[in-house]
Amino acid sequence: VRSVDGSFKDATSEAIRHWVNNLDSSYHLAGAPVGPHPCPAMSVIGKETRKQAMEKWGGKPDVLVACVGSGSNALGLFHEFVRDEDVRLIGVEAAGVGLESGKHSATLATGEVGVYQGAMSYLLQDEEGQIIGPHSVAVGLEYPGVSPELSFLKDIGRAEFYTVTDQEAIDAYRRVSQLEGIIPAMEASHAIAFLEKLCPTLPDGARVVVSCSGRGDKDAEMVLEHI
């Protein structure tokens, strides 16, 4: 195991760099859908969701909601349901301190198409194509690009994408911790926060699945600083 100083994008860059220099002896398999096959096809989250929905409800979910950084949370859940056009797929990006501030990670909401780490997708970039550093209170969402597959789902209108600010995610983190006794990861808190806007628009009895990925113990100190 080789550690890298920085965030996910730095680790991915170093892994790709090693891979292309050692093609005969290494293989690059990212834990996110920004690399080659088999991610996200190998994910079991969507398959488990379909199975449990059938057992609990006798049918598919109506809406799936997941946070979006590089895209692993969202595609892990969505991939099983992409061809079920009666199931809404909703991804929630990090608006940081506001889209107008420039301090955010909302790639699909504000980015432009470009090439990064060997793939074409939406990117946070300036007029000269230079990468703009992302920001989010959730470190796992701080990625300047996004999955090419999510980019495609946006382009064809199959998936919907919205944004949630740092403060909205922190509020959701606190709310779920207090009401459910579950400490969600700050990344997943973005998806949970969007329910405040989504649920009032849904018909009674709508079946909604939210990807609550990861534990929020790692975020507790940061949340206490903000409150």
From TrEMBL:
<keyword id="KW-0663">Pyridoxal phosphate</keyword>
<keyword id="KW-0057">Aromatic amino acid biosynthesis</keyword>
<protein>
    <recommendedName>
        <fullName>tryptophan synthase</fullName>
        <ecNumber>4.2.1.20</ecNumber>
    </recommendedName>
</protein>
<dbReference type="GO" id="GO:0004834">
    <property type="term" value="F:tryptophan synthase activity"/>
</dbReference>
<dbReference type="InterPro" id="IPR036052">
    <property type="entry name" value="TrpB-like_PALP_sf"/>
</dbReference>
<keyword id="KW-0822">Tryptophan biosynthesis</keyword>
<dbReference type="InterPro" id="IPR001926">
    <property type="entry name" value="TrpB-like_PALP"/>
</dbReference>
<keyword id="KW-0028">Amino-acid biosynthesis</keyword>
<dbReference type="Pfam" id="PF00291">
    <property type="entry name" value="PALP"/>
</dbReference>
<keyword id="KW-0456">Lyase</keyword>
<comment type="pathway">
    <text>Amino-acid biosynthesis; L-tryptophan biosynthesis; L-tryptophan from chorismate: step 5/5.</text>
</comment>
<dbReference type="GO" id="GO:0005737">
    <property type="term" value="C:cytoplasm"/>
</dbReference>
<dbReference type="InterPro" id="IPR023026">
    <property type="entry name" value="Trp_synth_beta/beta-like"/>
</dbReference>
<feature type="domain" description="Tryptophan synthase beta chain-like PALP">
    <location>
        <begin position="2"/>
        <end position="214"/>
    </location>
</feature>
